[in-house]
C-alpha cells in the first residue's frame, strides 16, 4: 500500500524521484519511485542520498544538547561566552543572545546572509553585522539559518574540533548512521539524487549547484549541509525515540502562531498537535530537493519522505506524510476554512514585503487575494549559479485574527499571519516561520 501511494503521489506531482519510509514499533516499510537524475538516471531506493537541507538542524541541535549534558557548555549562557568577537547590527542583541535562543529561533536574527561564499564558520560569523535584527532576543520566534550557522561555530569553539567532526562523533556514529554525510566528496561515494527545477516552459532540468542556495561552502553546513537516506533517517527517528537524554528537545519552548511549521518550537523540533496527539518533525528545502521527517512519540511511529523536484517536491512530501498519519494512525489535521473575500481588508494588506533574500507580494484584483514569493531580482541577476524558481502568485484566503492560508500552488496549505504596529498599520507578514517586513 505504501509503494502504491508513493507512486501515485510522485506521478501526480511530476517528481522524477521519491523515497519514503514508515517506522511503527519494530516494523519498517520502505517505498521508492523513479530516478535520481533525469540526465543520468539511476533507480531511487531507500539507501539513495538526498540533500536534507534544514533537517540538518536537528543534528546540530542534538550535538549541542549532548555537549551541554556533558558539562561542556550552558545552553542558557550568552553566545559571546564562546564567540567573543560576535558583532551584530544591534550591539545589545549581540551581548544578549543565548545558545538556546539560536536553537529555538528566538535570537531575533533574520534568515541568512545570501551574498558571498564564506568558506569557514568563523568567516561567516565575521559578516553577521550585515544581517538585519528583526526583534530583541527572546521576544519572538523567526526561523533563521544564520542562527544555526552561528551555533555551529559555538560547537567548534567549545570542542576545538571541526563542526562536522563533532557531529560525526556525538551524533552520527551513536545513531548508527552510515550513509549520512556532509559535502559532495562524501556524497559521491553513494548513489545520490540530483535536484530538479522547472525552466521557463516547465521542463524539469537538473539543479545547480547541488545542495542549498546560497551555496556558502562549509558556512551553511550547520543549518543545512547534510545528505541522508530514508533508511538512515528512520534510524535517526528511532535514536530520538529511544534516547531519554534527548526528550527535553521535544518540550515546547516558544509558541508559534498560524504557522505550517507547527504550534511551537522545542529545541529545534517543530511541535504540533493532530487530533490531540503530539507530533514532532522538521522539513528541509534545498535546490530542487525537499525532505520531511515526522515522529509521533506516543505511537512509536515515524515517517520520512524525500523528493528531488522543486517546487513540486514540497506538496508531494506533505501529501505523503498526511496519508501515512491517516492510514497508519487515523490522524487527520483540520484544514482552516478561509473567510469570504473582504475588499477593505484586501486593500489594507496588499503590497510588497521583504526579508534579506526574498520578496513577497500580496495583491488583489477586487475579487480575491494572491501571494507570490521569490528571490530578489537583483540577487538572482548577480548570481553565477542557478537558483530555485520563484513561487508565482497563488490564491490566498484570509482567516480570523489577521491570519491567512495559501490555497493553491506549490505552497498550498502554508499558513501565516500579519503583524501590525501600535497604530494598527500592517507592517509585516510571517510565512514559513519567517518575518517579511512591509516595504513602503
Write structural notes for this entry.
It is a single chain. The chain has 440 residues and is an alpha+beta fold. The chain has two domains: 1-334, 3-Layer(aba) Sandwich (Beta-lactamase), CATH 3.40.710.10; 343-438, Lipocalin (Beta Barrel). It is 27% helix and 26% strand. The chain has 13 helices and 21 strands. The strands form four sheets. It has an eight-stranded antiparallel β-sheet, sandwiched between helices. It has an eight-stranded antiparallel β-barrel with strand order 14-15-16-17-18-19-20-21. The longest helix is centred in the last third of the chain and has 17 residues, at 313-329. It is globular. The N and C termini lie far apart (52 Å). The mean pLDDT is 94. Residues 3-312 form the Beta-lactamase-related domain. It holds the Pfam family Beta-lactamase. It comes from Actinoplanes ianthinogenes. InterPro entries: Beta-lactam-related, Beta-lactam/transpept-like, Diverse_Enzym_Activities.
Amino acid at each position: 500500500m505504501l509503494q502504491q501511494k508513493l507512486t501515485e503521489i510522485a506521478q501526480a506531482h511530476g517528481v522524477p524521484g521519491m523515497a519514503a519510509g514508515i517506522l511503527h514499533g519494530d516494523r519498517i516499510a520502505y517505498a521508492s519511485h523513479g530516478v535520481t537524475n533525469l540526465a543520468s538516471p539511476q533507480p531511487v531506493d531507500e539507501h539513495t542520498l538526498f540533500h536534507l537541507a534544514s533537517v540538518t538542524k536537528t543534528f546540530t541541535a542534538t550535538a549541542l544538547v549532548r555537549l551541554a549534558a556533558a558539562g561542556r557548555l550552558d545552553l542558557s549562557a550568552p553566545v559571546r561566552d564562546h564567540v567573543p568577537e560576535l558583532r551584530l547590527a544591534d550591539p545589545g542583541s549581540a551581548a544578549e543572545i543565548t545558545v538556546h535562543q539560536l536553537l529555538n529561533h528566538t535570537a531575533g536574527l533574520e534568515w541568512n546572509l545570501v551574498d558571498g561564499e564564506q568558506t569557514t564558520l568563523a568567516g561567516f560569523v565575521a559578516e553577521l553585522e550585515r544581517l538585519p535584527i528583526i526583534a530583541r532576543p527572546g521576544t519572538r520566534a523567526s526561523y533563521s539559518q544564520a542562527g544555526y550557522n552561528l551555533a555551529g561555530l559555538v560547537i567548534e569553539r567549545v570542542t576545538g574540533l571541526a563542526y562536522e567532526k563533532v557531529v560525526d562523533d556525538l551524533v552520527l556514529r551513536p545513531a548508527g548512521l552510515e550513509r549520512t554525510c556532509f559535502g559532495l566528496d562524501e556524497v559521491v561515494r553513494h548513489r545520490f539524487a540530483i535536484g530538479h527545477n522547472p525552466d521557463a516552459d516547465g521542463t524539469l532540468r537538473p539543479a545547480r549547484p547541488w545542495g542549498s542556495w546560497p551555496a556558502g561552502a562549509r558556512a551553511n553546513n550547520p543549518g543545512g549541509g547534510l545528505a541522508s537516506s530514508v533508511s538512515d533517517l528512520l534510524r535517526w527517528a528511532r535514536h530520538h525515540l529511544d534516547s531519554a537524554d534527548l526528550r527535553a528537545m521535544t518540550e515546547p519552548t516558544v509558541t508559534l502562531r498560524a504557522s505550517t511549521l507547527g504550534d511551537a518550537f522545542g529545541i529545534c523540533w517543530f511541535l504540533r498537535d493532530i487530533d490531540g496527539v503530539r507530533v514532532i518533525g522538521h522539513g528541509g528545502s534545498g535546490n530542487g530537493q525537499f525532505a520531511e521527517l515526522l515522529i509521533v512519540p506516543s505511537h512509536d511511529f515515524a515517517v520520512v519522505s524525500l523528493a528531488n523536484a522543486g517546487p513540486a517536491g514540497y506538496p508531494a512530501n506533505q501529501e505523503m506524510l498526511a496519508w501515512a498519519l491517516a492510514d497508519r494512525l487515523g490522524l487527520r489535521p483540520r484544514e482552516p476554512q478561509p473567510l469570504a473575500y473582504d475588499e477593505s481588508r484586501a486593500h489594507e494588506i496588499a503590497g510588497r514585503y521583504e526579508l534579506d533574500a526574498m520578496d513577497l507580494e500580496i495583491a488583489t484584483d477586487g475579487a480575491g487575494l494572491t501571494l507570490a514569493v521569490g528571490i530578489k531580482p537583483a540577487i538572482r541577476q548577480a548570481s553565477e549559479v542557478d537558483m530555485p524558481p520563484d513561487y508565482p502568485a497563488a490564491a490566498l484566503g484570509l482567516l480570523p485574527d489577521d491570519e491567512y492560508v495559501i490555497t493553491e500552488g506549490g505552497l498550498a496549505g502554508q499558513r501565516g499571519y500579519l503583524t501590525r504596529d501600535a497604530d494598527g498599520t500592517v507592517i509585516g507578514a510571517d510565512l514559513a516561520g519567517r518575518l517579511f517586513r512591509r516595504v513602503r
